[in-house]
Amino acid sequence: MSFKFRYRSPEETAQAATTLGLSMGFSTDYQRLGEGLTLGQRTIPNRLVVQPMEGFDGVNQGEPGELTFRRYLRYAKGGAGIIWFEATAILPEARTNPQQLVLNSETVDAFARLVDATKEAAWAEFRHEPFCILQLTHSGRFSKPAGQRQPIIAVHDRVFDAVVGVDAAYPVLTDEELEWIRDTFGEASRLAYQAGFDGVDIKACHRYLLSELLAAKERTGLYGGSYERRTGLLKEIVALVKNSLPTLTVAVRLNATDLVDTANSWGVSPEHPGRPDLGEPLRLVTDLAELGVGLLNITAGTPYYNPHVNRPYDQPVKNGYAAPEHPLQGVDRLFNLAAAIQTHLPAVPVVGSGYSWLRQFGGAAAAYNLSHGRHQLAGFGRQAFAYPGFARDLLSGEGMRPEKTCITCSKCSQLMQVGSSTGCVVRDARVYAPIFQRAAQV
Ligand SMILES: Cc1cc2nc3c(=O)[nH]c(=O)nc-3n(C[C@H](O)[C@H](O)[C@H](O)COP(=O)(O)O)c2cc1C
Ligand code: SF4
After folding, report:
1. pLDDT at 1 over 80
2. Measured between alpha carbons, how far is 183 from 73 in angstroms, rounded to an integer?
3. Environment class of residue 6 by beta-carbon count within 10 Å: exposed (0-12), middle (13-18) or buried (19+)?
């Protein structure tokens, strides 16, 4: 099945959603998006968020490179209230691409320059300071530090072992190794604080290491099996960071559901494996809030197995699959997952994901969702690659311009898949069309 975006107004989009049995709302009262939000000792200048989006353009063992600086300066000049810096590995072997950013004592000064430059650029343009969060990651089974797969796994799983080509004899991380990784997350958080970030995100989504652990029902030992044990490492990391760096905001980008039918699943109904079951995810966010998590960013699925759940698209990557559902269903699922968590936990601001498929009407969907308390912040991923000034146009009241929006063509994902640096091939073609052409020849 292939469904292309073809709507001329928010009303038409809402009507299409109704026809599919969904209830998506839109509002052109963009004022709500411009409201500040107090978080810790800071005020976030508005409710629009640049989602974490890897560019894979690090240099010298993981420092931000020229294209990294370019990307964040474009975001800063675009006006979003939160800039959520991309997945940054806590260890060189935990990268999913040789050019992924790595935070350690050798690269920290370059990160400090990046945060300074980002805040300065936003100040010069808007007289505001964006809230800067660094996403810290361990890529786990999707690690490819030298360009080839070097999986680091927490549990064997029928579905995911096949995805990365490992068999039952492949080694699994020991509890001691996980504890060392926990402490490394702690050290990376300290370095993020030193570099000037306002917050860190302990990434627990998309089936990277900490997300795999949440689902590790068939793991034995301290960090697998029961709910308490599977969620234990993430909670220990949060407690460690909160105790050692009390003024740093700790955020978690969390899968509300993996939506994968397998023995080691997270947030999936055992009776209906195609449906989310939020019992454990709701319990986890309550536990995380008690430990001091101040911000949640809700997402779902994994780009390695069910990308249509993770990022609804018109067109798949080359050799990918056409989405088995209307993309509006994917967008609606992501909105509903964030709404369920926000309703359950009103005190902790939730960032909603999945806005880019809606093109120029994404801002109107955000205005509706925020004014109806479905989440407190709206995150834009591919849209920020394509249209870094989306926030400026929304906050000025003009709305987003159709000729600038992401068209969900998956070319940026394709670049990522082949191990290249990535960005918007369509709207930032001067830089990324030649990169795409070169990658296509490989
Ligand atoms: C090229 C690319 C890179 C991404 N990098 C990250 C990342 O670093 N961290 C993360 O949590 N999600 C990452 N994502 C997922 C996005 O943040 C976002 O959740 C997804 O694209 C859906 O939101 P959208 O519809 O606004 O694009 C990436 C997605 C793409 C296409
Ligand atoms: S290449 Fe550009 S237009 Fe295509 S999906 Fe990525 S950000 Fe959107």
Report:
1. no
2. 32
3. exposed
Determine which residue's CA is closest to atom 4 belonging to ligand 2.
409
User: For ligand 2, is residue 427 a contact (CB within 6 Å)?
Assistant: yes
Could you tell me the domains of the chain?
10-441 (3.20.20.70)
Q: How far is the CA of 73 from the centre of ligand 2 (A)?
A: 19
> Is the pLDDT reported for residue 273 higher than 90?
no
Give the distance (Å) from ligand 2 centre to CA of residue 412: 5
Q: Which residues pair with 251 in a beta bridge?
A: 201, 295
Report the distance separating Cα 206 and Cα 303, nearest Å: 7
Residue 299 near residue 306 (C-beta atoms within 8 A) = no
Judge whether residue 50 has pLDDT over 80: yes
405 pLDDT above the threshold of 70: yes
Q: How far is the CA of 222 from the centre of ligand 1 (A)?
A: 31
Residue pair 153/140 in contact by the 8 Å Cβ criterion: yes
Cβ atoms of 50 and 131 within 8 Å: the answer is no
The overall pTM is greater than 0.90: yes
Percent share of the chain, pLDDT over 70: 99
Distance CA 177, CA 172 (A): 10
Q: Which residues line the pocket of ligand 1, CB cutoff 6 A?
A: 51-54, 86-87, 135, 205, 253, 299, 310-311, 353-357, 380-383, 412-413, 416, 422
* 3-state secondary structure string across 358-378: HHHHHHHHHHHHHHCCCCCEE
Q: Is 385 in the pocket of ligand 2 (CB under 6 A)?
A: yes
Beta bridge pairs of residue 93: none
Q: How far apart are CA 388 and CA 392, in angstroms?
A: 9
Distance, CA of 313 to CA of 296 (rounded, Å): 24
Distance CA 96, CA 379 (A): 23
Closest CA to 291 of 345, 358, 365: 345
Neighbours of 72 (CB within 10 A): 25
Closest Cα to atom 28 of ligand 1: 53
**What is the full DSSP assignment across 196-239?**
T-SEEEE-B-TTSHHHHHHT-TT--STTSSSHHHHTHHHHHHHH
